[in-house]
Amino acid sequence: MSETYDPVRIGIVSVSDRASSGVYEDKGLPALRDWLTRALRNPITFEPRLIPDEKDRISAALVDLVDQVGCHLVLTTGGTGPARRDVTPEATLAVADKEMPGFGEQMRQISLRFVPTAILSRQVAVIRGEALVINLPGQPKSIQETLEGLKDEAGKAVVPGIFAAVPYCIDLIGGPYLETNDEVCKAFRPKSAVRPPRAA
Ligand SMILES: Nc1ncnc2c1ncn2[C@@H]1O[C@H](COP(=O)(O)OP(=O)(O)OP(=O)(O)O)[C@@H](O)[C@H]1O
Ligand SMILES: Nc1nc2c(c(=O)[nH]1)N[C@H]1C(S)=C(S)[C@@H](COP(=O)(O)O)O[C@H]1N2
Q1: Please, which residues have CB within 8 angstroms of residue 160's CB and are 6 or more apart in sequence?
Q2: What is the tally of structural domains in the chain?
Q3: CA 166, CA 160: separation in Å to the nearest integer?
Q4: Tell me, what's the pLDDT at 74?
Q5: pLDDT tens-digit profile of 167-179?
Q6: Could you tell me the maximum CA-CA distance found in the chain, to the nearest angstrom?
Q7: Taking the model in full, what pTM does it have?
Q8: 1, pLDDT greater than 80
Q9: Ligand 1 centroid, distance to 73 Cα (angstroms)
Q10: 144 CB under 6 A from ligand 2?
Q11: 200 has pLDDT over 80
Q12: Which range of residues forms the domain containing residue 121?
């Protein structure tokens, strides 16, 4: 039986002074696109933005992606550290209806398994309207690390990635029903929230 999945519109935002001015090639947007395409079964329309580390520009991009473009999920990468120009968390909190502190807490826990500097990321996650907005660090490899978590050699999750909680969060705020490829990331929902497959 072939199955159908809800379409989803996802904002991907790379925040980098150097990538946005062409000093180096942006690797953030391709890494986000590749990981999400592997992780989700749903048909995805990506809405990419490459912008410098400017608070007002970042906030404006988030508002546009959620309020005008209709994204139910927005992932940012970069600008979460302590440097003077790192302002992505402030720009995200400025447009939040609600803060979701568990995502940042869990991402720092996961990242500590990879780098001791994990605690330098001030990444946050927030709800705006019917969208979940999550900050990821700027190192392109941190995208897979935080979303997918850490696996052992047999592919079993040692530390679950934060994406496991994303589909149910989006259910709760009125977005599309997201379904994952379990070998990449197994979404968790309470039994009462699991929907049966729909035939095409
Ligand atoms: N969008 C990107 N594309 C490719 N590599 C990146 C990107 N963002 C960060 N990196 C890499 O990760 C490192 C740490 O990222 P960080 O966000 O701290 O950069 P940064 O020092 O703030 O500079 P910038 O904002 O100009 O990318 C960078 O030095 C770079 O090697
Ligand atoms: N998973 C993961 N998290 C990570 C890193 C990483 O390489 N992998 N780099 C850390 C470093 S060195 C910094 S400075 C902070 C902030 O990075 P950002 O300013 O690029 O967002 O994220 C941290 N979190």
Answers
A1: 149, 188
A2: 1
A3: 12
A4: 99
A5: 999 999 999 999 9
A6: 54
A7: 0.97
A8: no
A9: 23
A10: no
A11: no
A12: 3-199
